[in-house]
Amino acid sequence: MTGETTSTADPVASAPGLVGTIAGIREAVAAHRRDGRTVALVPTMGALHDGHLALVRRAREIADVVVVSIFVNPLQFGAGEDLDRYPRTLESDLAALGRDGVELVFAPTAAEMYPAGEVETRVTAGHVGTLYEGASRPGHFDGVLTVVSKLFHIVQPDHALFGQKDAQQVFLVQRMVRDLDLPVRVEVVPTVREPDGLAMSSRNRYLDAEQRRIALALSESLAAAESAAADGLDEVLAEAAGAFGDHDGIELDYLVVVDPETFLPVVEGAAGPARVLVAARVGATRLIDNGLITLG
Ligand code: PAF
């Protein structure tokens, strides 16, 4: 891979242009813009699954050119997290993106994105960035927002697409776009699930067969929360937590019901739309999920 736009040798698909440098992707996007085309960016860390491909397909509907970034961002991983073992599957990612007609893949190295190593200048995610995922993974959302804002500045897309599965990330990205007046429209695409309900995630591939079965507690807890929603917050929390009682080998990290507008926890007696957030550890693998309910 070079700074130039190159093609991979996939005989079936029309391979996307693979670009490794910031200058190269700017040039490639500028060429499309000169021809009057609109651009959508789908930021990813690779290890693509159908959830990512749903973002790509939606991007294709709303823009002329789709750019997918593939970058395992070291800034959003804490000490002891899975940065080194995070799955890197560039060849199969490119083949999948080629089949979906993606024009450009931006896959920089860490040295390209952070030539000075640790960056001093970062976007801070504020108080909400320290809650839930942020409490378990300190600094995670500062790392996410920093790389997302870099990608926005590099690609300058008209649209950027994110998956609802990472609900807190979506909330924080949307707020960053508002707070910093970034000229991009963020579109959120519903979570894609396996037939049995498990939310698709690149980390699912860490699970062995037994862990894969146990991991269903997350989606089961959301279903339980939805069934109890008319009875109020306390019932929702009790029923949703109950889904974990039946499983050994899974450790609940947090289960919380938040106001979708503020992302702060709702209190007993609240009524109307609310989002249930759940995170659990299955062996060494941390999984998250969420769902919208209407509290009665
Ligand atoms: O959701 C992800 O895969 C990552 O957090 C993102 C948005 C690509 C930033 O690294």
TrEMBL record:
One of its GO terms (molecular function) is pantoate-beta-alanine ligase activity. The active site is at H52 (proton donor). Beta-alanine binds at Q76. HAMAP family: PanC (MF_00158). ATP binds at residues 45-52, 163-166, 192, 200-203. Keywords: ATP-binding, Cytoplasm, Ligase, Nucleotide-binding, Pantothenate biosynthesis. The reaction proceeds by a bi uni uni bi ping pong mechanism. Homodimer. This is Pantothenate synthetase.
